[in-house]
Design a protein that fits this description.
Blueprint (H helix, E strand, L loop, with lengths): L1 E3 L3 E3 L4 E3 L7 E3 L13 E4 L1 H11 L5 E3 L6 E3 L2 E7 L7 E6 L4 E4 L21 E5 L12 H17 L3 E5 L5 H11 L4 E3 L1 H12 L7 E3 L9 E4 L15 E6 L8 H4 L4 E3 L7 H11 L3 E5 L3 H9 L4 E3 L11
């Protein structure tokens, strides 16, 4: 039904799944660069299609797959389900009449301010993203982290400082923006981020009181820029900055030192360790293939009696089933 060649391929349909190399036919779970290829024809949700064309050019050909509306590609029935990672992110369920396979892509369970909440259909085979596949990556309750973020930003503003939040231009930046504006805190965004936010707006996501940062700081505003380390993350004209990173890795207290920020808060758009285990239980697959995560998560699943296998860059095996 499928094989692995530096990425997942649904063999009978000739469909590459989240393969960043150009393919004749490719499914994209979401519009982050490491999951997109400049395919001859890309299958994806309508929101991902809009973000894909924004990032890779308006000429890109897509076949849109709204959630829960199956299509037929060769002998396979393909259906997308919300993944909760960012706007338009999707899991892919493939069925051939005998077996079913669920590919999660990057995902997160539970609520989001700017993306659809994830859904987990049953499948016989589960191919799952396992970034936080170590027990220490159990996130604190989301409401607590959001409250900490809002409290920190308000405190900075009250003390005449400028809260500068580092977040990926697509997904995390819009999530943080919406959380802040819903709390009555206006936001200025890095120009690259603001361009993505305009696509969100065109897709019907209201981010509240947000504007582009044009080298002039507006009083009482939080600023959202790119992650530190990206070439263009610096913004001119910011006085008394307090830098804040928002990442699941912040569960580790050393994160703020590694990322060279004043604060690091564990707000994530990936499933944490507990959610990974919940996923395995809810999907009920007879075989589980783990990608983008540590080998020890596979070992943990095996110890719990699951039929689990690692997949990492094709180094384990090229044909999985």
């Amino acid at each position: 039904m499928f094989h692995w060649d530096r990425g997942l391929f649904l063999t009978a349909a000739g469909l590459a799944v989240d393969v960043p190399r150009r393919q004749k036919l490719g499914f994209m779970s979401h519009a982050h660069a490491d999951h997109m290829g400049a395919h001859e024809l890309a299958l994806c949700t309508p929101a991902t299609a809009a973000l894909y064309r924004h990032r890779r050019g308006a000429h890109r050909r897509t076949r849109e797959m709204p959630y829960h509306e199956p299509i037929e590609i060769g002998p396979l029935r393909l259906t997308t389900y919300p993944a909760g990672h960012c706007l338009g992110s999707a899991m892919l369920l493939a069925e051939d009449g005998n077996k079913s396979l669920l590919f999660t892509g990057d995902y997160k369970l539970g609520p989001s301010a700017t993306s659809e909440e994830a859904e987990l259909p049953h499948a016989d085979i589960l191919v799952m993203e396992c970034t936080f596949g170590r027990p220490q990556y159990r996130m604190p309750p989301r409401a607590e982290v959001v409250a900490e973020l809002i409290g920190l930003v308000r405190r900075c503003l009250a003390e005449g400082q400028t809260p500068v939040i580092h977040a990926y231009a697509l997904g995390k930046a819009q999530e943080v923006t919406k959380l802040l504006t819903d709390a009555g805190i206006p936001v200025q965004q890095h120009p690259m981020t603001f361009a993505v936010s305009e696509v969100y707006r065109e897709c019907g996501v209201d981010l509240g009181q947000v504007s582009i940062y044009d080298d002039k700081l507006r009083p009482g505003h939080a600023v959202i820029t790119l992650p530190r380390g990206m070439k263009a993350y610096r913004l001119a004209g910011i006085e008394n900055p307090v830098s804040i990173a928002v990442t699941g890795w912040a569960v580790d207290s050393s994160t703020k030192y590694r990322q060279k920020v004043d604060y690091a808060l564990p707000l994530t758009d990936h499933a944490d360790f507990n959610q990974l285990l919940e996923t395995v239980e809810l999907v009920g697959a007879e075989a589980i293939y783990c990608t983008h995560g540590p080998q020890e998560f596979v070992e943990h699943l095996r110890a719990e009696g699951y039929n689990a296998f690692p997949v990492a860059g094709g180094s384990y095996q090229t044909r999985m089933f």
